[in-house]
Specification:
The protein has helices at about 15-20, 20-25, 50-60, 65-70, 80-90, 100-115, and strands at about 1-10, 35-40. With about 120 residues, the chain is an alpha+beta fold. The chain folds into 2 domains: about 1-40, no CATH class; about 50-115, Homeodomain-like (Arc Repressor Mutant, subunit A). A two-stranded antiparallel ribbon has the order 1-2. The longest helix has 14 residues, at about 100-115. It is flat, with a radius of gyration of 27 Å.
């Protein structure tokens, strides 16, 4: 992810300067105009179905552990992004469905037993 920081003039700078018109009449210098910081994030491109299929094949070939080796075969993707994509979206133990009442009951039971500090 690339981050670009840009200093842009403050739109209120004109109002800020007008407050000091009296001071200018007696010879005082107005303060310099304020600037605001604008941060623009350049996000990586979204994963395509072709990349997902390639990642699944490479992960299986490399034993689901050697992510730097997998990333070498995936242009524009780091080992961390490949591992995160696998663990959070493509692994077989990730279920993409709404929670059921049974799931809610299980979560409440586990929370009661384990408390707030559990992974």
């Amino acid at each position: 992810m690339n981050i670009e920081v840009v200093l842009a003039p403050d739109p209120e700078g004109v109002i800020q300067r007008s407050r000091f018109e009296k001071d200018q009449e007696i010879g005082a210098q107005p303060p310099p105009p304020r600037a605001r910081c604008v941060v623009r994030l350049k996000l990586p491109p979204a994963w395509t179905p072709e990349e997902d299929a390639r990642l699944q094949r490479l992960a299986k070939e490399n034993g689901f552990r050697r992510w730097s080796r997998v990333a070498r075969s995936m242009p524009r993707r780091s080992a961390r992004s490949c591992r995160d994509r696998w663990r959070h979206h493509l692994a077989r133990d990730v279920y993409h469905r709404p929670f059921t009442a049974r799931d809610d009951d299980e979560l409440l039971r586990l929370h009661y037993r384990l408390g707030d500090s559990w992974k």
